[in-house]
Design goal:
Elements lengths: L1 E3 L12 E5 L6 E2 L2 E2 L3 H15 L3 E5 L16 H11 L4 E2 L6 H9 L5 E3 L7 H4 L3 H8 L4 E4 L20 E4 L1 H15 L5 E5 L8 H10 L2 E4 L3 H8 L14 H13 L3 E3 L3 E5 L7 E4 L8 E5 L1 H13 L2 E5 L12 H15 L4 E5 L1 H9 L8 E3 L3 H8 L4 H4 L2 E3 L1
Parallel strand pairs: 2-5, 2-8, 5-7, 6-7, 8-9, 10-11, 10-16, 11-12, 16-17, 17-18
Antiparallel strand pairs: 1-19, 3-4, 13-14, 13-15
Length: about 400
């Protein structure tokens, strides 16, 4: 039997150096963190390690520096934010590996924390380099993966490192995996998936798999634009992914074959740009200069009706440009409706992806969801049935 190696509450880690891989890939604007649910998510694990009097060394990344030092992608602001959350100084090191880091890892007092600089400043991280992983492993005595959103990546601090140090799955990571297994194996029907985002090509595999399992698939957000265009309507200046006609046709045919209700926008909120007022338009009213920035009233009502009929909801991807209030109504009303039905015990609701969780937090609905996962790609790939490299790296044969 294959089992994931988990951290035992009774494990004596006092004075041990714990290398904790987390996901702190948060939005930062002019040095200020604008949304921090990924930091909040891992606080219980950090507090657990503090109480166990471990020496905590945190590995994380921010953005895609592609192996180069990019000053705007430093983790320094995160150290400050973490210090506030934990009421203790989190020491920030401007390096990620090497003798200085090893020396510091040994010197820190029990129950104290070091945050290492962005691990992706090293190109060896994304190459899953053996020598780099060995260097990383020298910084700790044990390793914990609490970075589920990165676990679909075969990177050195997620995969290769587990071969060189005693490694465990963190509690939050295990919770994520178990919630997704519940969704795929024991979901109460009718089940509905609301899926947004911009690229259809990155979600085609998961869509085809979900069509086989779900009763309703709602496609909204920028991803819906290509479906609107496929139907022969003008989408003006709206974002869409080119050369995906075969893929679209395949999704439409698969939904018919599997009796899955594919719900697409019937009207939209369009505008000339992000700063103008939104106008409600039916699909045949969209003109060459329009940008589709939210779903329309009829589409929203259709989605709300489907939510009311559902027992399980999976939501991945906002349905409009929610960051601007003018175009946030669709995402806000969906978040409120799912939250309301979940609280009334008529719905199991799971939302995945950083943008989705950011939208739910913005509308103050986070306490009305059964589970929120900050993972996007990893969440969808596990749902699709793929083996995630970061999870596989933690498996032990029994």
């Amino acid at each position: 039997m294959i089992k994931i190696k988990r951290l035992d509450d009774n494990l004596n880690i006092e004075g041990k150096r714990v290398l904790l891989r987390v996901d702190f890939n948060v939005p930062i604007n002019d040095g200020a963190i604008t949304e921090d649910s990924r930091i909040e998510k891992v606080l219980p694990t950090i507090k657990f390690l503090i109480n166990k009097k471990a020496k905590i060394i945190i590995i994380a990344h921010l953005g895609r520096p592609k192996g180069k030092i990019v000053p705007e992608l430093t983790l320094k602001p995160i150290a400050k934010k973490l210090s506030n959350y934990l009421n203790q100084d989190v020491v920030f090191l401007s390096e990620s590996v090497g003798s200085l880091v090893i020396q510091n890892s040994k010197k820190i007092p029990n129950g104290k924390i070091i945050l290492l600089e962005n691990i992706r400043f090293h190109k060896e991280e994304e190459l899953n380099s053996v020598s780099f992983a060995k260097e990383l492993s020298k910084i700790g005595d044990i390793y914990i993966n609490e970075a589920f959103p990165c676990s679909h990546r075969a990177h050195a601090s997620v995969c290769e490192i587990t071969k060189h140090i005693n490694s465990f799955a963190g509690k939050q990571l295990l919770k994520e995996v178990n919630v997704i297994k519940l969704l795929t194996n024991n979901a109460k029907k009718p089940t509905t998936c609301i899926i947004g985002g911009s690229k259809i090509s990155t979600k085609s595999g998961i869509l085809v798999e979900l069509i086989k399992k779900m009763q309703n698939i709602v496609i909204a957000g920028a991803m819906a634009n290509i479906f609107i265009k496929h139907k022969g309507y003008n989408i003006g200046q709206s974002v869409f992914e080119k050369n995906q006609e075969n893929l679209i046709e395949n999704i439409i045919q698969e939904s018919k074959k599997n009796n899955c209700n594919l719900l697409l926008p019937e009207d939209v909120i369009a505008s000339k740009n992000h700063n103008s007022k939104g106008v409600l338009k039916s699909l045949d009213q969209i003109n060459d200069n329009d940008l589709i920035l939210d779903i329309g009233e009829k589409t929203l009502q259709n989605i709300i009706n489907v939510i009311d009929e559902s027992k399980t909801i999976l939501w991945n991807g906002p349905v409009g440009y929610f960051e601007i209030d003018e175009f946030s109504a669709g995402s806000r009303k969906i978040a409120n409706k799912i939250s309301e039905n979940t609280k009334a015990k008529s719905l199991v609701s799971i939302a995945g992806g950083g943008d989705t969780v950011a939208a739910i937090n913005k509308f103050k609905c986070s306490n009305g969801f059964t589970y929120l996962s900050t993972a996007g790609g990893a969440f969808l790939e596990l749902l699709e049935g793929k083996v995630l490299p970061g999870i596989k790296a933690l498996e032990v044969n029994e």
